[in-house]
Amino acid sequence: MKGTIIKRKNSWSLVIDLDPKTDGSRNQKWFSGFKTKKEAQIKQAEIITKLQKGCYFETQKMNLSSYLDYWLENYARTNVAQSTFVRYRQFANCIKKHLGNLQLSKLKPIAIQQLYSDVNKQVSNSTVLKLHRFLHLALKHAVKWRIIPLNPTEMCQPPKPKRHEMSVWDISTYKNFKDLIKNEVMFLVVVLGTETGMRLGEILALRWEDISFDSKTIHVTNSLQYINKEFILKEPKTKKSKRSITLMDTTLQVLKSVQYEQRVNKMLFGKDYDNNNFVCCWNTGKPIIPHYISTRFKKLIKKYNLPEIRFHDLRHTHATFLLSQGINPKVVSERLGHSTITLTLDTYSHVLPNMQEEATEKLNKLFCN
Questions:
Q1: Helix, strand, or coil here: 328?
Q2: Dihedral through CA 247, CA 250, CA 253, CA 257, nearest 10?
């Protein structure tokens, strides 16, 4: 592996010998336009170092597979959350399987549209939309880095996600379920999900120092994720997700009861107790994997023949309880940690017509008196 620097009239050029072509013939790459020999020498050292490390590529001939690998390592790995990076890598593998060999500069919208159609046969519209957003972001940087002139995903149309029918429980169903699962490790998780509207990751990340029994509040500061067999605490979903939630007396009673049980378990297990101070944990103090809660929740609903909902729907149940009692949507938005009140109003528009009827009845009384 070598390079040669050549003087050409008023400038200097660099010739790098690359690996021979498939037919065995010589393969050279020229770099021209250096004002000084020193500039050419610096470029020569840079390219040879990259060649030796196996990370040199010619952007004009780069295929989509090589580009996505480069983008993941040099942008995504340091700019997105670890959970997002894992998901991005899954999307990249899927795209590479279908279009990886295509030269990046020759990637056309029609090929991407076909990708969406093929993938959509196996996964939901929502997943294809997420894959589209991933590819759009990756190729947006390819344009920014001047590897390609235009982003072909701009001319593509991913399928529209099917709107998920929101399912919620009424108060009697919740109370019945609460009584049935008293001895389950997920009992407190269900209580907090329904009585505070917290997300599952936020609940599992709670530590006892996040709860103030005097002021009756929970301070949401983190979210727990389980990635590559490792628990990771990260900041919540949005800036407004960091919030304080006022607790009902019934919720406080459950928390105090669980805190007492944990003190007993600490004495029973002694040095074998995993003292991470998590509010929701196993008897040994070890944190709970989020996926366990989701799957166990489904099994318990089926076991007791209750209306089928997802664990996340307990959050919707909490919001519906509040709105049906006439609580200001702004307060509901703050408790849920929504980024805007508009999101709250859009998400729970199904509850608002009943609120309008109640408001009209109150106006009738006001004007008729």
A1: coil
A2: -110
Q: Rounded to whole angstroms, how far apart are CA atoms 254 and 181?
A: 13
State in Å, rounded, how far the first CA of the chain is from the last one: 95
Beta bridge partners of 287: 281
Euclidean distance between CA atoms 266 and 336, whole angstroms: 33
The contacts of residue 297 (CB under 8 Å, 6+ apart) are: 186, 190, 310, 311
Amino acid at 53: K
Question: pLDDT of 256-312, one tens digit each?
Answer: 999 999 999 999 999 999 999 999 999 999 999 999 999 999 999 999 999 999 999
Domains of the chain with CATH codes: 3-56 (no CATH), 61-155 (1.10.150.130), 171-356 (1.10.443.10)
Q: For residue range 209-265, list pLDDT tens digits in order.
A: 999 999 999 999 999 988 888 898 988 767 888 999 999 999 999 999 999 999 999
- Distance of alpha carbon 316 from alpha carbon 319, whole angstroms: 5
Q: Copy the structure tokens of residue 95.
A: 């795209």
> Does residue 210 contact residue 280 with C-beta atoms inside 8 Å?
no
Whole-angstrom CA distances from 328 to 147, 216, 332 are 51, 20, 7
